[in-house]
Structure formats: structure tokens, C-alpha cells
Amino acid sequence: MSARVLSGKELAASIRTEAAERAAALAADGRPPKLAVVVATADESSAWYVRSIARAAEKAGIACDIVDLGAEAAPGLIRDRLTALSADDAVHGIILQTPLPQGAKLEDLAGAIAFEKDVDGANPLSLGRLAAGLRHNFDFEGRWR
Q1: pTM of the entire predicted model
Q2: Averaged pLDDT, 67-89
Q3: What is the per-residue pLDDT across 14-49, written as a single tens digit (0 to 9) for each?
Q4: pLDDT given at position 11
Q5: Distance CA 119, CA 85 (A)
Q6: Residues 6+ positions from 91 with CB-CB distance below 8 Å
Q7: Strands, DSSP E only, in 1-145?
Q8: d(CA 102, CA 117)
């Protein structure tokens, strides 16, 4: 067996191209894709990362709503916002940015993210599917494909 060199740049470019094509198809169908990034921190490195997510989404033709709840957001507020975004048909993907405020734990909040909208795989169901080697088989509308 011969060695094969893997190029991260080529893979990333391929993923970006596919994402942009899928986003354009959804937009043409009247269903423009939207990502929601829920932020409850004042951490500057986290803010930089969220800005980079928004730029990448924009380049792919995906709307990105940054939902800033403030660095002192209570866990209940974060959970309520995640639940509302999960139920919002206009939102296709959700990220809960970390770090979280004092008293808020990712493991306690991740279940409020609908697993079919869970971009980071934080929901326990998403993690279980990943551990079992099961692929994410939902489209942007949460339908099995």
C-alpha cells in the first residue's frame, strides 16, 4: 500500500464549494439557509472565532445571526433561546459558542439544540450518532434523506 498525501486546503476548498452550492440551491428554492450562533461570553478569542464563522458563512451564501445574550446570561435564558431557535423554521443550523458564563454548562444546555440543527455536535444525540459511526442524514429542513 502506498502513502497518500492529504491536503487540508483542498478538502476545505471542496467543503466550501459544496456548502455554497447547497446554499445557493436552497436560496433559489425560496429557503435561504441561516446559521444562528448563540454567544454568552465576553471572551475576545471567542469573539474573533465567531466573526470568522460569520465571514465563512457569508462567503458561502449562508445568513449568520449572532445572538449575543451577554456574558452574564443565566442558563435558563440560554436554554430558552436555544429552544426557540431549534423551533424556528428559518434557522437551519445552531452553534452554542463557548466559554459559557459562570453556572452555565454545555452538557446541561446542549440538549436544547435540535440535533438536526446541531452544527458542532454538542447535543447528546449528535454525539451518540458520531460515536456509533452514523452519518448526519438530515437535509437543511430537518428531513431524513
Answers
A1: 0.85
A2: 97
A3: 989 999 999 999 999 999 999 999 999 999 999 999
A4: 86
A5: 13
A6: 34, 35, 36, 65, 85, 117
A7: 34-39, 63-68, 93-96
A8: 25
Residue 81 makes CB contacts below 8 A (sequence gap 6+) with 38, 67, 69
How confident is the model at residue 70, as a pLDDT? 96
Q: In this structure, how many other beta carbons lie within 10 angstroms of the beta carbon of residue 74?
A: 14
pLDDT value of residue 136 = 58
Among 36, 83, 42, 101, CA closest to 63: 36
Centre a 10 Å sphere on the Cβ of residue 88 and count the other Cβ atoms it contains. Answer: 15
Predicted confidence at residue 137, as pLDDT, reads 53
Q: In what order do the strands lie in the sheet with 63-68?
A: 63-68, 34-39, 93-96
Tell which residue, 83, 89, 95, 144, has the closest CA to residue 119.
Answer: 95
